[in-house]
Amino acid sequence: AQSVTQLDSQVPVFEEAPVELRCNYSSSVSVYLFWYVQYPNQGLQLLLKYLSGSTLVKGINGFEAEFNKSQTSFHLRKPSVHISDTAEYFCAVSDRGNTGFQKLVFGTGTRLLVSP
Amino acid sequence: ETGVTQSPTHLIKTRGQQVTLRCSSQSGHNTVSWYQQALGQGPQFIFQYYREEENGRGNFPPRFSGLQFPNYSSELNVNALELDDSALYLCASSQGRGNEKLFFGSGTQLSVL
Phi/psi at A108 (nearest 5 deg)? Predict the structure, then answer.
């Protein structure tokens, strides 16, 4: 079974500072990895995903993440945050199985709080 | 192209009642997945429908059931509501059963009193 651990429930940061949101996963098979963002009272929006190829993945809004297979991590980074980045961020994993059925397993989320 | 739309946006029910939530998938998508997001938690997979058939199910009791229609829209039905069913219910659609391109709706907030 797969699982995702988001090590920080809340990350406070000042505007224009860099930020890293941590994500570790557990799986016995090869995986796809995702980061989603959820603004208040809204659904989930895909920030970026790792499917294959380069381990450094760039997404929307200036975010990027690095897949580290040996450390089973997929940490999300942004060099300079804005107030508008305040939101809940979810890391998720899905197996690459060819069974035709793949569910997303989410972490518990990290709330990013950006202050002036 | 239209996005994923869910209705209603908010719903209040009492314990023991039944509820139906609706989801219209994005144009061209044939797969719908449902997730439950309890307060302060990540979404949890309920089930997936592919071409009108249930294609996989998470760890939810049988009182959670669903349908997918020929136009690929979907319903989630919950019978005998319990207080712990209070959550945001998210629908996601995709073309095919993988998660590489999954699009989420804004959800239905269900409160069970």
Answer: -85, -5
Q: Please tell me the distance from the alpha carbon of residue A51 to that of residue A31, in angstroms, as a whole number.
A: 8
pLDDT digit string, tens, across residues A33-76: 999 999 987 889 999 999 888 999 999 999 999 999 999 999 99
Q: Do A102 and B58 touch (CB under 8 A)?
A: no
Partners of B48 on chain A (C-beta within 8 Å) are 101, 103
Instruction: Count Cβ–Cβ pairs < 8 Å, chain A vs chain B.
Output: 60
Distances in Å between the Cα of A83 and the Cα atoms of A14, A39, B65, B100, B112 are: 8, 12, 40, 29, 34
CA distance B91 to B74: 9
Q: Is A30 part of the contact surface with chain B (CB cutoff 8 Å)?
A: no
Question: What sign does the CA torsion over A23, A55, A77, A85 have?
Answer: negative
Is B100's Cβ below 8 Å from some Cβ in A? yes
Closest partner residue to B48 (CB to CB) among A34, A45, A103 is A103
Say what the pLDDT of residue B99 is.
73
H helix intervals, A28-95: none
Burial of B75-112, coded b for 16+ CB within 10 Å and e otherwise, reads bbebeebeeebbbbbbbbbbbebbbeebbbbbbbbbeb
pLDDT at position A29 is 79
